[in-house]
Amino acid sequence: MEKIMVAVKRVVDYNVRVRVKPDGSGVVTDGVKMSINPFDEIALEEALRIRERGDAAEVIVVSIGSSECQQQLRTGLAMGADRAILVETGQPVEPLAAARVLLKLIEREGVELVILGKQAIDDDNSQTGQMLAALWERPQATFASEIKFADGKATVTREVDAGLEVIEVDLPAVVTTDLRLNEPRYVKLPDIMKAKKKPLDTIAITDLDVTTDAQFKVTNFAPPEQRQKGVMVEDVAGLVKALKDKGLV
Amino acid sequence: MSRILIVAEHDGNSLNAATAKTVSCAADFGVEGIDVVVFAADGAAIAEQAARLTGVTRVIRVDHSANAQPLAAVLAPQVAALAADYSHVLGPSTTFGKDLMPRVAALLGVGQLSDIMDVQSAYTFRRPIYAGNAIITVEAPEDRTLVATVRVASYQAAAEEGAAEIESRDLDVALPEHTRFKEVRGGSSDRPDLQTAPRVVSGGRALGSSENFELIFGFADSIGAAVGASRAAVDAGYVPNELQVGQTGKIIAPELYIAVGISGAIQHLTGIKDAGTIVAINKDGEAPIFEVADIGLVGDLFQVIPELQSALN
Ligand SMILES: Cc1cc2nc3c(=O)[nH]c(=O)nc-3n(C[C@H](O)[C@H](O)[C@H](O)COP(=O)(O)OP(=O)(O)OC[C@H]3O[C@@H](n4cnc5c(N)ncnc54)[C@H](O)[C@@H]3O)c2cc1C
Ligand SMILES: Nc1ncnc2c1ncn2[C@@H]1O[C@H](COP(=O)(O)O)[C@@H](O)[C@H]1O
Hints:
A: 249 residues, alpha/beta, two-stranded antiparallel ribbon, B: 5-stranded parallel sheet, 27% strand
């Protein structure tokens, strides 16, 4: 195939312990480490491996968000993507809007495979890939842990509640990644230097002629209910007693 | 007119418990009716189970050979066709519902709300974000269909005291052929189901091998518990993926959760925060799991588990 598109979202790094602002207006993001959404790194790694095997010619990495997303796109270029597109907006984008934007880019570029993360770890929505596939009227293979290609088709193993499900989809298609699909490569310093010369185009979201208005209104952010710290027991006898006291055994 | 349509999850033979929990959530909306739709090759038995769920007004049975397997691309246009008669369309926040419902929403041209954990009104909800580190209150627009998934760990299953009518329907909808089911592997075990069991014992990286993980299976069997695992244990290949508990695995709410050799990473804790009692067994007294555990024991699991097993039996 000719082109693979990968969507990467800029999110709070997964190691950061996210805290809610005291006034309930949002979560604290000032001075917090930002990264590529971990599932999207896996998506990009998979696309690069497909290209390196000779099954694709070009990998385009896309992000929708503020100009700061350039950092994540540069990281994507350093990992090995051929070029990057930033669709710039100052507003948060809901999954349906992100899917509409991605569809526009697919139509412009003539993409045969789109790989996304199965969920962005900020909003934990897990929607964009499925919505994109619906709008594009193409197959979706979500939560992928293995992808194989032959004769214009992809055979995808999916992580589902029952275990592993295998489906076959015609291309073009949308795939979303689960954690066990691969282990992303580390970026080396020379790659970062090289990435600076790779093309990174910026398009204003307003130039794409898509409806991106938010449909949902978040009225409050609250910290989760904390579990009370419990008791420590000395030994197995103490544990058994504590369980009996609670009527659990 | 405000009515809820729930898409039933099943394995071809019986209804998944997630559906009964979704019905409980729907009961909190205060709408006029709750319908359940069963897509299957032959949905007779499943539809009867759905009809018994308390709160369900009507069960719609859509039998079609293409519905033998739950492929989102095939089911979504059928759900979208039915959606015109409803104000809300709900599915469980399982891999089935997460795969399907966003596709339905996009076909309807509306957004989707994920993981409802609390219903404040028919259009106001609470849901977790950032792996459960924040809970947001969200208002959905009232002028269009609301498509949403329900965080099933937040709800008890609806009772089975109902007797809803069952109606068979033929849908005149073009079904895509670009997506084909091949097979599903794993999951066949006599053990209690991880997502519904009242007791769960989970093992982590500390187990060290699949042979050692037998210790967890043996202990769990001795107390009639389901078995879970941390991502580290699954990634290391000690147990299959369907046992993973956490943000990207299963979100569960057993009465008793025993975490053995699990450090308590936030992504794991997200999966168990609604558990009744959390027991942690870890040799490191500083492990974060102890901050959320109701009962903690610092010790070597290879000594503690056999001792505990014999003490309890
Ligand atoms: C995007 C993302 C999603 C994730 N989703 C999940 C998820 O859904 N579920 C999940 O579990 N993780 C998830 N993780 C991984 C998570 O961050 C942790 O890496 C993982 O939970 C660690 O597993 P563990 O506790 O078994 O291993 P470790 O963190 O290595 O902990 C092992 C523990 O065993 C103890 N130990 C060692 N030997 C013994 C002994 N003999 N006796 C008693 N105790 C002993 C140690 O003290 C230690 O606390 C995710 C990560 C990312 C980035
Ligand atoms: N703003 C965005 N920019 C780039 N990719 C995105 C964006 N939002 C969502 N995605 C992609 O869609 C996936 C699923 O996101 P979500 O549906 O929000 O959980 C992510 O892992 C990304 O691959």
